[in-house]
Amino acid sequence: MQFWYSHSWVTCLLLPFSFLFWLISYVRRALFKHNILSSYRAPVPVVIVGNLSVGGNGKTPVVIWLVQQLQQQGLKVGVISRGYGSQSNTYPLLVTAQTDPLQGGDEPVLIAKRTQVPVCISPNRQQAIELLLQQQHYDLIISDDGLQHYKLQRDIEIVVIDAQRGLGNGLLLPAGPLRELPSRLQQADLVISNGESNQYTDVVMRLEPHYAVNLVTGEKRLIASFKVASAIAGIGNPQRFFMMLQSLNIQLSQTQAFQDHQKFEANQFVKFDKNRPLLMTEKDAVKCFAFAQPNWWYVPVDAVIEGEKVRPFLAKFRSTK
C-alpha cells in the first residue's frame, strides 16, 4: 500500500477506521493486562521477536541469529510460529528441515534448516509450546512473531524495523501500516533496525551474503563471482533483495517481485533465461527444490547485529539455564 508511506486524501478517509482499530486494540490489551481475558504463562521463559508494522521487516534472520547466540551460551532453545501460509491438516505441527514448506510454511522450514532446532507451528501458540515441551526440556522458547498476541505472556520482547520503510506514515491500520502506536516501542527490550539506524533504534542489523548455493547440486559459489543474473523474491520487501545484489555489482537483467509467502510453481519461471543464473532468497528456495533448474541459486544471508546494547541484552539470558 503506497499510501501507507505518505499522507494523502486516502489516509484522511481511513483515519476513522484507524481510530476504531486503536480503540479495539487498546481495550483488548487492557483486558489481558487486568486478567479479564485469560493468558498463558509458559513454564519456561518466552522471547517474542515481532514488529509493529505489516510486511517483512527481517524477523526470521533475527530469530536465527538469536537461536545461534543462545546456543553458544549452552542454552536449549525451541521455536514456535503461527506458521503463516502453511496448509497442514493438523496443528500443532513439528517442523523439521525436511518438512514440505506447503505443510510447514516457508519461514518455519527455513528456521529449522538453518538452526537445526525444533520448530512447532500452530495458530494456538500455547499448544505449540506444550507440544515442544512434551518432546524434551527447553531452557526457553522463541516465538517468531506474536508481539500483539497478548494471549501469550512473554518475558522478553524484540521488535524489528525495516530501516527503508520505517514506520511508514506513523498511522495505524488501515490508514497506515502499524498494528500499534510507535510509543509501544518504549516497552520493548530491544529494537533492531534492519539496514541503518533511526530514531527508534537500539541496535542495527546488517544482512550479509557470502555465497550462493545451487538448488540442484548444492554447489556453493562466492556471491561476488556472479556478474550478470536474473533474480526473484517473494518476501515482504523484494526490492531489498534486489538492491543487495546490485550493491555487490551484480547486473540484474530480469527481476520479478512476488507476494510474501508466495506459493511457487514451475510455470512461473519459464520467462527467465536458462543460460543465466537465477538468484533467489533462501526463504523462496525452500519452496522450489522440487522443480529447480540447474541455473537456480539461492543466497543465504547472515544477520550481523551491532551496537553497544547487544552484549547486555544477551547477558539477560545467562540466568535462564
Written overview of the protein:
The chain is of the alpha/beta class. Helix content is 26%, strand content 23%. The chain has eight helices and 15 strands. A nine-stranded mixed sheet has the order 3-4-2-5-1-6-7-8-15, sandwiched between helices. Pathway: Glycolipid biosynthesis; lipid IV(A) biosynthesis; lipid IV(A) from (3R)-3-hydroxytetradecanoyl-[acyl-carrier-protein] and UDP-N-acetyl-alpha-D-glucosamine: step 6/6. Its EC number is 2.7.1.130. It is an enzyme of class 2 (transferase).
Primary descriptors:
Tetraacyldisaccharide 4'-kinase; 23% strand; kinase; single chain; LpxK; lipid-A 4'-kinase activity; alpha/beta; nucleotide-binding; 321 residues; 26% helix
Question: Outline of this structure?
Answer:
Keywords: ATP-binding, Kinase, Lipid A biosynthesis, Lipid biosynthesis, Lipid metabolism, Nucleotide-binding, Transferase. The chain is an alpha/beta fold. Helix content is 26%, strand content 23%.
**N- and C-termini, Cα separation:** 44 Å
Low-confidence stretches: none
Q: What would the principal axes of the Cα set say about the shape?
A: globular
Secondary-structure element order, N to C: HEHEEHHEHEEEEEEEHEEHEEH
Going across the biggest sheet, name each strand in turn. 3-4-2-5-1-6-7-8-15
Arithmetic mean of pLDDT: 95
- Percent helix range: 25-40%
Annotation, overall tally of beta strands: 15
How would you classify the helix and strand content by structural class? alpha/beta
